[in-house]
Amino acid sequence: MAFITEDFLLQSNAAKSLYHRYAAAQPILDYHCHLSAQDIAENRRFHNLFEIWLQGDHYKWRAMRANGIAERFCTGDAELYEKFLAWAQTVPHTLRNPLYHWTHLELKRYFGIDQLLDGASAQKIWQQANERLLDDDLTAHGILKKFGVVAVCTTDDPTDSLEYHERIRNSGISTKVFPTFRPDWALRTDDPFAFNEWTDRLSAAAEKDISNLSDFVDALAQRHEYFHGHGCRLSDHGLDRCYCDPCSDREASSFFDRVRAGKNLSPPEPAKFASHLMMLFGRLDSEKGWTKQLHLGAFRNTNTRMRLAIGGDTGFDSIGDRPQTGSLIAYLDRLDREKILPKVIAFNVNPTDNYAMATAIGNFQDASIPGKVQFGPAWWFLDQKEGIELQLNALSNCGLLSRFVGMVTDSRSFMSYPRHEYFRRVLCNLLGNEMETGLLPNDEKMIGAMVTNICFDNAAAYLKLPSVQRPAEVPTSPTQGE
Predict the structure, then answer these.
(1) What is the mean pLDDT of residues 401-424?
(2) How far apart are CA 322 and CA 250, in angstroms?
(3) Does residue 416 surpass a pLDDT of 50?
(4) Are 127 and 154 part of one and the same domain?
(5) Does residue 87 sit in the same domain as residue 149?
(6) Looking at residue 130, which CATH number applies to its domain?
(7) Which of 79, 302, 344, 396 gets the highest tally of CB atoms within 10 A of its CB?
(8) 317-372: pLDDT as tens digits
(9) pLDDT tens profile 7-52
(10) Nearest partner of 354 among 320, 318, 398, judged by Cα
(11) Boundary (domain end) residue, out of 121, 137, 153
(12) Chain segment 370-392, per-residue pLDDT in tens
C-alpha cells in the first residue's frame, strides 16, 4: 500500500472535501524562495536525482550527520550515487522527522514513485527517477508549469545585474519571475573587509563612486529603483533581530567613514548603523508600495570549525532565543510615526515567540489594506506539520487567519513545490476537523472560500505583482458535483 495516498494528512471527511475541492487545484504564488534565476533563464535540465534533490540541501545533510554519515557524503567528494545511497540509507531513520514526509511526497509528485526509499530500494529509485528527468516536464520551466506556479520571487543582492531576470522575461515562460531586494550585506559593518568588498561591488553596479555615506545611500536608492523597473515589489532582510537603535545622521556617517577606512567599530555601533539603514529601506519600500519581509531570529553558521572547513550556509544553523518582539515593535512603531510604514511580513523562527509576534503585528494595522502587517508562514525549522499548526493557531487566536497570505517554499530546490501541497493539507485538516467537532460552522462554502483565499488570492491581492492574476481555468470555489 502506498504511503502517500490521496488523503495523506487528511483525518476527516470535511478535511478531505476542503482539500480536494478548494485547495488542491489552486495555483502557487511563491513570494519567497532562493531558486537560481540563472537556472530558470537557462531552463536547466537536471541530469540525475542528486542534482535536483540533494545538491545544496542542508536539511538532508543535517539528518545524515545525525545518522553518523561522514561529511564526504554530504558536502564532500564522494561519487554522486554514493551520496544518494547514503541519503537513502538515512531515510528510514527520519521517521517522525518532516523529511520522511517530504521525501516520499516529492518522489510521488515528481517521479510517480510510491516505493519507500531505503538502502535496498535506492538503486531502482535512482534509475527510475533519472529516466524521468529526461522528460521536458522536469526541466526548470517544466516543473514550474507542472505545479501551477504563477509567480516566483527570487532572492537577490542589490549588486546583481538582474541579467537572468531579463532573459527570463524574454523567454516566453508563463510563470512570472521577479527579483527581491535583499540588502543584508549593507548592514555588515562588523566585518570591514567584507563590507568594503561588497560596497565596491555596489559602486560598480550603480556606476557611482562611493566615498561617504551620502554616496552609499544614493547608490542603494538607485539599485532599489533599478529593481523596481525589473518588476521587484518585495524587499527581504535576514536579521538576528529587528534593528531600531537610536542613530543620528552624523553618527552613521562617522561609522561609515571608519569602516570604509578599514577600521573596526565598537560592539554597539554596527547595530546602530544597521538601524539607520533599516529606516532608509523602510522609506524606500513605502515610497514604491513594496512589501518588506523580515526573517528574524536564526542563529546562523554556529559551528566555527565546519564553517572554516566547508563554508557557510551548510546546515549548521539553529533557532535563536534572542528577544524579538520588543525590537520589532520599536521598528514598526518608528516607521509608523514617520508615516513610512510599508506592508510588512514578519517571519518568526522560534515557536515560543508565536503569540508575542502575532499580537505585535496587530498593533500596526490600518485601513490602507486588509492585513497590512502579516505574521509570516512557518519558516525554516518550523515549516512542518506541528510548526505550521502552531503558526496558524497563533494567527487565528490573535488576528485574522482569513487575511493570511499563505505559504512559501523558502527553498533553493526545484523539488520543493510539494511544500505548498503539504501546507494546504495541514490547513484543510485543521479546519475540517474543527468543522466536524463543531468548533467551526459546518459550512463548506464559507470555509472553502477562506481556504482558496489563503492558498492564492490573498497573496495576489496583497503583493500586487505586475501582471499576476488567477489563471482563468482555475476555479475560485468549485461547485457541488464537479
Answers:
(1) 97
(2) 29
(3) yes
(4) no
(5) no
(6) 1.10.2020.10
(7) 344
(8) 999 999 999 999 999 999 999 999 999 999 999 999 999 999 999 999 999 999 99
(9) 999 999 999 999 999 999 999 999 999 999 999 999 999 999 999 9
(10) 398
(11) 137
(12) 999 999 999 999 999 999 999 99
What's the angle, vertex CA 423, arms to CA 137 and CA 296, rounded to 5? 110
Residues 6 or more apart whose Cβ sits within 8 Å of residue 105: 4, 8, 418, 421, 422
Q: Where are the beta strands (DSSP E) in 179-301?
A: 234-239, 291-296, 298-299
| CATH for 337 | 3.20.20.140
Q: Is residue 35 part of a domain?
A: no
Q: Given this model, what pLDDT does residue 477 score? A: 58
H helical segments located in 261-371: 268-288, 304-310, 325-337, 354-361
What nine digits make up the cell of 334?
A: 518608528
Give the distance, in angstroms, between the CA of residue 370 and the centroid of all CA atoms in the same chain.
22
* DSSP β-bridge partners for residue 238: 295
Angle at 359 between CA 357 and CA 361, to 5 degrees: 70
User: For residue 457, is it within any domain?
Assistant: yes
List residues bridging with 149 in a β-sheet: 28
| Spatial separation of the C-alpha atoms in residues 390 and 383, rounded to whole Å | 10
Q: pTM of whole model > 0.85?
A: yes
Q: Are residues 390 and 336 in the same domain?
A: yes
On whether the CB atoms of residues 185 and 194 are closer than 8 A, the answer is yes
Mean pLDDT throughout 65-71? 98
Can you read off the three cell numbers belonging to residue 223?
539599485
| pLDDT confidence band for 481 (50 / 70 / 90) | very low
Amino acid at position 396, single letter: S
CA atoms within 13 A on the CB side of 8: 20
Residues 361 and 258 in one domain: yes
Burial 311-335 (b: 16+ CB within 10 A, else e): eeebbbbebbeeebbebbbebbebb
pLDDT at position 476 over 80 = no
Q: Which helix (H) or strand (E) holds 319?
A: strand 318-319
The per-residue pLDDT for range 88-136, each reduced to its tens digit, is: 999 999 999 999 999 999 999 999 999 999 999 999 999 999 999 999 9
The CA-CA-CA angle for residues 369, 372, 378, to 5°, reads: 135
